[in-house]
Design a protein that fits this description.
The protein is mostly helical. The protein has 11 helices and 3 strands.
Amino acid sequence: MRFVDQYKKGTENGGTYVLTICIFLLTYIFSIIGVQAVMSELFSFEDLSNGETNRNLIFLFQLLPFTCLFIALLICVKFLHKRPILSLFTAREKFDWRRMFTSFFFWGILQAILFFGFAWDNIQWNFSSDKFFLLLLISIVLVPIQTAIEDLFFRGYLFQGVGKLLKHAGLSLLFTGMLFGLVHAGNPEINSLGYGLLAFYVGSGLFLGIIAHMDDGLELGMGYHLVNNLFGILIIGNDWSALKTDALWIDASPPDLISAIVVSILCQIAMIVFFSKRYKWSNWKQRLLFRDL
């Protein structure tokens, strides 16, 4: 059974999807309210506005709602949909860690080459031991959860659910990719780069959806997503991204939307070609363009 068909392993109906999405949204709303309440007790508005706070603590609070969402989604899949939790991750009999780490290291090495090879003149050393090692600990524990819940919800739960509704994997990919882009419209990067950046997010959503569908699992996308976020959090940060951290280096160059989108598209195409050859993907036309569910 393919990844997009994994919903068939549960007792699915429209009510379970409506209830799960309501629980998911309420979990997000209440977790954000809780985090903001705690932050308002710990920090003054001036401290938050001027950035005169412990960045690691702010970063920790930013990631906590994703943990709540992760738990909520898995509980709903297990007890409302009555499906194996593994069916949300992959169509294989077990999660393929080798696939995940192949993607992780492939994109991690490529990112390092791009940044250190072409942007070195604008990168400033920023290492501070008393800040970085705590950041490293927080990142190792919570960033995998943050990236995993986005993959599980968009490329797993919604992809399978919308595929069931539309009876078309390609349309489901398009829908979830566009929705993935739109939910990032409130990110701080939009203020620096403009709404054209949504094309990057939509493209990334489509890329991750394609490799999940063609590979019948989230392993490759999860590896890509995880190292992508860890690289921006731990290795090279900047002052206009959604997650501001005390990374090892700070990229002081002004944001360049066109270059970011072009480089991203080229790299994602290269990764699709590499993965398709390595894992022998086939029947592209039927799986992406025709009603085959």
